[in-house]
Design brief:
- The structure is a homodimer.
- Helices cover about 40% and strands about 20% of the residues of chain A.
- Chain A has about 140 residues and is of the alpha+beta class.
- Chain A has a 3-stranded mixed sheet, with no helix packed on it. The first copy, chain A, has a two-stranded antiparallel sheet with strand order 1-2.
- In chain A, α2 crosses α3.
- Chain A is globular and about 55 Å long.
- The first copy, chain A, starts with a helix and ends with a strand.
- Chains A and B meet through α5 and β5 of A and α5 and β5 of B.
- β5 of chain A pairs antiparallel with β5 of chain B.
- Bound molecules: manganese (II) ion (2 copies) and zinc ion (2 copies).
- The site of one zinc ion has 6 residues of chain B, from loops.
Chain lengths: ~140, ~140
DNA sequence: TTATGTAAAGATAATTATTCTCATTTATGG
DNA sequence: CCATAAATGAGAATAATTATCTTTACATAA
């Protein structure tokens, strides 16, 4: 994924293309496993040592607002970010804080079919994602 | 749900029965919609004005450790607690921070069947819960 | 080109949920 | 009751995040 891709994405959203925004966006994509702000900062500082922490949080927020990133729910007091904005599920390790993506169109179809028949009372579904908790076998 | 119920539950888990623990446990059960620590404190202070905030957090933690409460994932920087420890799913309001419980054995069966056939590579599933995001119709 | 306006970044202070420390109090088994 | 470990209260400390304010970058118009 080339540098131009990030610049182009930012431009399309009407965001000014700044080195900081490119670096932060690129960091989340490259780090790839739902990094925390801290992990993102560590990564960026290797090539961009003077970036301010406040800038990182502000940029992350605006990338989330513009749907280039998503926040990932977890039960710790630390926010994590996801570069995969298309519909997908998450595998949560029950022993560590590892979170992996899980895509499964067949499963989505199954669940959508299910809720086509069975409505939830007084609730209009917009999106369903699964939190699959378990253990990763080695690696 | 009587006061003795809470005392009994605590005792069964080997936890000393203190007025604070009973009050906090009771608060989460009565408040019932996944309250924050702050909401719990407000509720308790009505009858128990001198309880310390640190105590509330410590008790909540130990109730979670002993599986009398669960933490609820959300994408805010505030922890929420759940008195329903049996397997269930959550309806998240996309506009407010309302979270409701959703139980559905049929759906669980469907999903379990699905994963009986289709294994996830290098991952052993322990639990699957759905985050269903959408809109509550009035009320 | 230079001036000007605006948005973004940097530095750092403030906020806030949560955790920690430690002196004091309390629950519980004997 | 007593002893004692465990729990609570008060307040300080932490840490993630947010806010404030100044400086910088950069686009556009004079
Ligand atoms: Mn925090
Ligand atoms: Mn916080
Ligand atoms: Zn993801
Ligand atoms: Zn619940």
């Amino acid at each position: 994924m080339t540098n131009d891709f990030f610049r182009e994405q930012l431009k399309q959203k009407g965001l000014k293309v700044t080195p900081q925004r490119v670096a932060i966006y690129e960091a989340v994509v490259n780090l790839n496993n739902h990094p925390t702000a801290e992990k993102i900062i560590d990564y960026i500082r290797r090539n961009h040592p003077n970036i301010a922490i406040g800038t990182v949080y502000k940029v992350l927020d605006s990338l989330v607002d513009n749907n280039l990133l998503k926040k990932v729910k977890n039960d710790k007091d630390i926010m994590r970010y996801d570069a995969v904005v298309s519909h997908h599920h998450h595998l949560y390790c029950s022993e560590t804080d590892r979170i992996e993506d899980y895509e499964d169109e067949l499963l989505d179809k199954l669940i959508n079919e299910y809720f086509k028949n069975k409505k939830i009372e007084k609730f209009e579904i917009q999106d369903i994602t699964l939190q699959i908790t378990g253990k990763f076998n080695n690696n």
